Amino acid sequence: MSYPEANVLVTTAETIPGYTIVEVLGIVVGITVRSRGLGGNLMAALRSLVGGEIKEFVEMAEQARMQALIRMIDRAKELGANAVVNIRFDSNELNQSMDEIIAYGTAVKVAKNS
After folding, report:
1. What family does the entry list?
2. Residue 68: how many CA atoms within 13 Å on its side-chain side?
3. Is CATH 3.30.110.70 the right assignment for the domain spanning 2-35+61-112?
């Protein structure tokens, strides 16, 4: 995956086809904490009675993952990276209404193969 506006290649793989890692800069992390809030919890409770997808939580989860990913990419750029490999996501419940979403990977400099 490439983020042209950030000029950073991003992948869950250890390598990027067509590129060689020329320098490993270190681990980069992006974190966000989201609160479901009273309204979200109420809507989820009502939807859980009838079953099905809880769209409010899906949207919140997608936004949180993207924000964590963007923050991780920003950290990589601060180190001078032009790629991040081995990206992973993790999440933790901090309390009944707050979740922590983490994106992490290895910031690297890559060069395009000739």
Report:
1. Belongs to the UPF0145 family.
2. 23
3. yes
